[in-house]
TrEMBL record:
<dbReference type="Pfam" id="PF13155">
    <property type="entry name" value="Toprim_2"/>
</dbReference>
<dbReference type="InterPro" id="IPR007694">
    <property type="entry name" value="DNA_helicase_DnaB-like_C"/>
</dbReference>
<dbReference type="GO" id="GO:0003697">
    <property type="term" value="F:single-stranded DNA binding"/>
</dbReference>
<keyword id="KW-0347">Helicase</keyword>
<dbReference type="GO" id="GO:0043139">
    <property type="term" value="F:5'-3' DNA helicase activity"/>
</dbReference>
<keyword id="KW-0067">ATP-binding</keyword>
<dbReference type="InterPro" id="IPR027417">
    <property type="entry name" value="P-loop_NTPase"/>
</dbReference>
<keyword id="KW-0547">Nucleotide-binding</keyword>
<keyword id="KW-0378">Hydrolase</keyword>
<protein>
    <submittedName>
        <fullName>DNA primase/helicase</fullName>
    </submittedName>
</protein>
<dbReference type="InterPro" id="IPR027032">
    <property type="entry name" value="Twinkle-like"/>
</dbReference>
<dbReference type="GO" id="GO:0005524">
    <property type="term" value="F:ATP binding"/>
</dbReference>
<dbReference type="InterPro" id="IPR034154">
    <property type="entry name" value="TOPRIM_DnaG/twinkle"/>
</dbReference>
<dbReference type="GO" id="GO:0006260">
    <property type="term" value="P:DNA replication"/>
</dbReference>
<dbReference type="InterPro" id="IPR006171">
    <property type="entry name" value="TOPRIM_dom"/>
</dbReference>
<feature type="domain" description="SF4 helicase">
    <location>
        <begin position="308"/>
        <end position="567"/>
    </location>
</feature>
Length: 599
């Protein structure tokens, strides 16, 4: 089925006056023909947000336009390489590069040129240095940088590493945070060096980890690599990029640069201390702590950052009560338990959907309960859209949107095809970290895992070993692992089944001792409401605290709403400007000022 997501007003039959700005009222193409009041412009159109809503209640048609560029980039991956720029470099730009200790030879080697270019930041043409990006000697992209350090990449061009051809077939390389640092390493005689194309974005609360689209596009260049020296800047943003690069490329083969006092990147080292020191700094790069014994010196910079910024709360999924109890952090291990059919998987689905729609989390799911995986995808689409899975409730536009959303954020294991030991599931998850940068991994449920007991090992000993492996994986790969586990048979009192906790899980008390967090989903038999109990929080009170939150469950959509709040029946329409660039914020209904409603 080839649906087209609307990108122009004409695609949805809306006519807006050419000069219109802000918010306008127009005839609704869905209901105007059937209306008796032909003068009623019942459709409110917000031209900036690119959303609309009909205020004639029987119609209530609403929707949003999609960003053509975003869709092209994301779905079709159609890129347009820029034209080869003229080989001109002004004396002024050359002087600037020379002043950064870059020789004419290096400037020529990297084919640096300059020329006038329209810059969105200043809204005028500026003289810009052009850093060309090649793959197989073909120009793929250009970075333009003006004198005030504003930069932009070529329009619709593919994001790849700068100087990529230099690492083809290499077993060792250096990755820098900018072109000048990359050229500085080259200047110092380190030739297998590349730079990320768009620096490091400043991390912030509620902001997703840096998205390394360029790594997805160049992944094969790193498959044979044995040692990767990460030379991002020594500031907070640079460290965050460093950590994500190492997570994606595998910490075991990555080392990172520690800069001499008073410098924060390779170019500063070159300027201040010269070429030999650049080489020395790169050769003395230190390993990421994976396991073993550490001293404060090993992680001093990160510790200082913790001191300055404090321990951060994790990502909150947007339920006011539940958010006070619990937040989600990568690198942790959470067990979800509850009596069969009380909604463990359903609640987890809802959490995963919200973590994606709010923060862009990507999830790998090994679910034995949800097979074939297509059915699971359908449930997630329903939950995301807040619509029953039925063509009469989900129109083709919403359907296309839902598919795009699940396609971008979920990777499903086909449980028929894989060995079901903890080791092999984690190996598969490691692959997905490196290939797609997954943020969470769900195993649902535990009792399908094969117990491959070692000689003399009891079931309890095996569980302990398996949970240790999972914890190590979550820490080393900075992935939140969700493990759904059933309780042993629960006893029943007059008020219904007892509420299970981590000690109730069949097999071992290790489920309590060896996990970071424990959540129970339990239907209160007196009220029928699902109640979510946060039973254990390792990082109390930072990640959360113990307590419970009462929900309602919408069977048709699989959505949860807190007790006194309503289910949003709107397709999420908002463009989230707060940081996450996918532009979807589920459950936020479109808002128009009430006083503008005209019937
Ligand atoms: N609170 C609820 N009210 C009504 N139906 C529910 C509720 N919670 C879940 N369900 C439905 O019950 C079925 C089982 O839910 P789910 O798989 O999430 O439960 P579970 O606790 O994970 O069960 P199991 O232990 O068997 O895997 C699903 O069809 C789901 O839609």
């Amino acid at each position: 089925m080839q649906e087209k997501l609307p990108t122009e007003w004409a695609d949805v039959g809306i006519t807006v006056p050419g000069h219109a700005k802000g918010q306008v009222k127009v005839f609704c193409p869905q209901c105007h023909d059937q209306r008796r009041n032909k003068t009623d412009k019942s459709l409110s159109v917000n031209l900036e947000e690119r959303v609309w809503q009909c205020h004639y209640p029987p119609c209530s048609w609403s929707g949003r336009l999609f960003d053509q560029e975003l869709l092209q980039q994301r779905k079709k991956r159609v890129y347009t390489p820029p034209a080869e720029p003229p080989p001109h470099l002004s004396e002024k730009s050359k002087k600037y590069l020379n002043s950064r200790s870059l020789s004419d030879n290096t400037i020529r080697r990297f084919k640096i040129t300059d020329g006038m270019e329209w810059m969105p930041q200043t809204e005028k043409e500026q003289n810009c240095i052009r850093f060309p990006y090649y793959r197989n000697e073909q120009l793929v992209n250009i970075k333009y940088r003006d004198g005030a350090k504003n930069f932009k990449m070529a329009k619709d061009a593919e994001l790849i590493f700068f100087h990529l051809d230099a690492i083809e077939g290499a077993e060792e390389c250096v990755i820098t945070e900018g072109e000048i640092d990359c050229m500085s390493a080259y200047e110092a005689g380190v030739y297998q060096v590349v730079s990320v194309p768009n620096g490091a974005s400043k991390p912030g609360a509620g902001k997703a980890a840096p998205k390394l689209e360029y790594l997805d596009n160049c992944f094969e260049y790193f498959t044979v690599m044995k040692r990767i020296v990460i030379a991002t800047d020594g500031d907070t943003a640079g460290r965050s990029l460093r950590d994500e690069l190492a997570r994606r490329l595998g910490r075991h083969r990555c080392v990172y640069v520690v800069y001499p006092e008073g410098t924060k990147d390779l170019n500063e080292v070159l300027l201040t201390h010269g070429k030999d020191r650049v080489k020395q700094v790169l050769s003395e790069a230190v390993a990421f702590p994976i396991e073993g014994v550490h001293t404060v010196t090993d992680f001093e910079a990160d510790l200082d950052q913790l001191y300055l910024e404090g321990i951060k709360r994790g990502d909150q999924i947007g339920y006011p009560d539940f958010d006070k109890l619990f937040s989600f952090k990568r690198g942790q291990f959470t067990v979800v338990t509850g009596i069969p059919n009380h909604g463990k998987s359903a609640f987890l689905n809802q959490c995963l959907v919200r973590l994606s729609s709010r923060y862009g989390w990507k999830h790998a799911i090994c679910s034995f309960e949800h097979q074939p995986v297509m059915h699971h995808a359908a449930k997630l689409i329903s939950c995301f859209l807040g619509k029953r899975f039925d063509p009469s409730t989900i129109n083709t536009t919403q359907w296309a949107w839902g598919k795009l959303f699940v396609d971008e954020h979920f990777y499903f294991f086909n449980t028929e095809d894989i060995e079901l030991t903890v080791g092999s599931l984690l190996d598969k998850a490691k692959e997905l970290v490196m290939r797609y940068g997954i943020d969470s991994f769900t195993i649902d449920p535990w009792n399908y895992i094969e117990f491959n007991l070692e000689r003399g090992e009891t079931e309890t000993m095996f569980i302990s070993r398996a949970l240790t492996l999972i914890t190590k994986f979550s820490r080393a790969y900075d992935v939140h692992v969700f493990l759904v586990a059933h309780p042993a048979k629960m006893s029943k009192t007059g008020k219904g089944f007892d509420i299970p906790n981590l000690y109730s899980i069949a097999g071992s008390a290790h489920f309590n001792n060896k996990t970071d967090n424990g959540i129970t989903v339990h239907i209160d038999e007196m009220t029928g409401n699902p109640v979510v109990y946060v039973q254990k929080v390792r990082e109390q009170p930072y990640t959360g605290v113990k307590g419970h939150s009462i929900f309602r469950f919408e069977v048709g959509t699989g959505r949860y709403a807190e007790l006194d709040t309503s289910f949003s029946d709107e397709v999420p329409l908002y463009l989230d400007r707060k940081g996450y660039d996918y532009g979807l914020l589920a459950d936020d209904p479109i808002k128009f000022p009430q006083d503008e409603i005209i019937f």
